[in-house]
């Protein structure tokens, strides 16, 4: 159990389970993108830990970059997306893998996909550590999904509550 600001959180997914699953996802991505020189686009801030561990397990030639968008205020998604750091890389003819900590309503991901499409990329795939299938408002296909979870607020392993808790090395869920 852990208290972050005014809320109490309990463990949902432990370190070992996260690392094992990331290794599996990395193996699958290495197979699917061998020889394709993909570029991973991490969505800041939440994806930094997942992207880091994922990259360490990849054996293929690849590149990475980040973009930063803002949509979430404390415990619920605001729905409006703001671009805070854009994409500098030339993505024409590149295989892009968007890396997220979590897909919740799907609005952020839909916005990013819309932004990438005019850039004449070769392909777009999505890797997300977590997915809340019951919260999806826009149909989004997560090609490489770590774990499907219930529609509850989680933090840790990059995910935050009001900016805190990102450093916790496991996924914790808000205690009801
Ligand atoms: P969406 O646009 O509703 O899919 O929200 C995606 C973004 O909201 C993610 O990149 C996260 O930063 C944030 N988010 C969604 N659910 C949670 C949660 O349970 N805990 C912390 N952040 C979350
Ligand atoms: Mg995020």
Structural commentary:
There is one protein chain. This protein has 176 residues and is an alpha/beta fold. The chain starts with a strand and ends with a strand. The longest helix is centred in the N-terminal third of the chain and has 18 residues, at 15-32. The strands form 2 sheets. Strands 5-4-3-6-7-8 form a 6-stranded mixed β-sheet. Strands 1-2-10-9 form a 4-stranded antiparallel β-sheet. It has helices at residues 15-32, 48-56, 107-116; strands spanning 2-4, 7-13, 39-44, 63-73, 76-85, 95-103, 123-131, 144-148, 154-155, 171-174. It has 3 helices and 10 strands. Strand 1 (2-4) and strand 2 (7-13) form a beta hairpin. The radius of gyration is 16 Å and the shape is globular. It is 21% helix and 38% strand. The structure holds inosinic acid (IMP) and magnesium ion. Magnesium ion (MG) binds next to loops.
Helix content range: 10-25%
Biggest pleated sheet: 6 strands, mixed
Q: What is the C-alpha radius of gyration, as a whole number of Å?
A: 16 Å
Strand content: 35-45%
Shape: globular
**What small ligands are held by the chains?**
inosinic acid, magnesium ion
**Helix and strand element order:** EEHEHEEEHEEEE
- On the 0 to 100 scale, the average pLDDT is 94
With strands numbered from the N-terminus, the spatial order across the biggest sheet is 5-4-3-6-7-8
């Amino acid at each position: 159990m852990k208290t972050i600001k005014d809320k109490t959180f309990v463990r949902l997914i432990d370190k070992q389970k996260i690392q094992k699953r990331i290794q599996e996802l990395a193996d699958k991505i290495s197979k699917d993108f061998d020889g394709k020189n993909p570029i991973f686009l991490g969505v800041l801030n939440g994806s930094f830990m997942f992207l880091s561990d994922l990259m360490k397990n990849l054996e293929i030639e690849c590149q990475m970059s980040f973009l930063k968008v803002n949509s979430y205020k404390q415990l619920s998604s605001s729905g409006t997306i703001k671009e805070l750091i854009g994409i500098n890389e030339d993505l024409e003819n590149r295989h892009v893998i968007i890396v997220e900590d979590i897909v919740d309503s799907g609005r952020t991901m839909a916005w990013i996909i819309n932004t990438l499409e005019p850039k004449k990329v070769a392909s777009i795939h999505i890797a997300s550590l977590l997915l809340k299938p019951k919260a999806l408002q826009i149909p989004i296909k997560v090609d490489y999904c770590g774990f499907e979870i219930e529609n509850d607020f989680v933090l840790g392993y990059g995910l935050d509550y009001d900016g805190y808790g990102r450093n916790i090395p496991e996924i914790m869920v808000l205690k009801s």
